[in-house]
Amino acid sequence: YTEQKLTGWFDPPIVMQKGYSEESFISGPLTQSMNAGGILFINELNRLNEGVQNVLLPAMDEGKIEIPRIGTVYAKEGFLIIATQNPREFIATSSLSEALSDRFELLPLTYQDEEEERSIVETRTGLHDEHATRIITAIIRETRVHPFVRRGASIRAATSMATIMSFTERDIEDFRNAAYLSLPTRMELREDSKKNVYEVIDEIIDKVVSRTPVSEREKEENSNPEDTTEGKAGEKKTIGI
Question: Are 78 and 173 members of one domain?
């Protein structure tokens, strides 16, 4: 958002024909919400620059804003602003001004529980493989508690992994490769981490796999005397079907 996009702007061709008037003015989301007595939702509020944040102050404090060449826009009953913000340690975030913070009530949000996250992954990706989605969800949740990780992965990483996994055989190496593609840009290591991001991912996957119940297909494969199992370096072990 910029100040202009938030409040509105004049359409140049119409201005040329009819001048600066309400007819040539295109309302922005803030102005539209005030006129309708509706709710304005702003995602990642603390990524907005200070000038844009300041535009919200008169609307929240006095219920009105001034539009040059148009006049005063008053908020109808029911007007409300709801916003989200990332933690301050996230890159490209800034602190809200004291004046703006004073006009918001804070509702902290945490991650969904494991079953809810698994359900979201399944719904968003169409991967209807409970065993695979449980493994993916467990991997993502482990990134949030690993001692070398400063910022763990969100549900977006889980949906990314699941989308990739839908095109694979869903064995251990497929989970590992999907994690290599999905996690490095969505998690952040601590400065004092003794491992790189791929080593941390390997450690997390090995931990999750070691406690994951063996699937029925794997039980059948392991019970077949003709099957042989290679060492870890060459292992191709099915866990997701």
Answer: no
How many CB atoms are located within 10 Å of the residue 7 CB?
A: 26
Q: What percent of the chain has pLDDT over 70?
A: 85
The answer to whether residue 46 sits within a structural domain is: yes
Q: Does the predicted TM-score (pTM) go above 0.70?
A: no
109 lies in a domain? no
pLDDT per residue as tens digits for the range 51-75 = 888 899 999 999 999 999 989 999 9
- 226: domain CATH number is 1.10.8
Residues 26 and 68 in one domain: yes
Q: First-to-last CA distance in the chain? A: 45
| Residue 213 three-state SS | coil
Give 6's contacts (C-beta < 8 A, 6+ positions apart): 28, 29, 30, 52, 55, 56
Residues 77 and 119 in one domain: no
Label residue 183 exposed, middle or buried (CB < 10 Å: 0-12, 13-18, 19+): buried
Query: Quick one: how far is CA 147 from the chain centroid?
Result: 22
Boundaries of domain holding 64:
3-101
The rounded distance, in Å, linking the Cα atoms of 52 and 62 is: 17
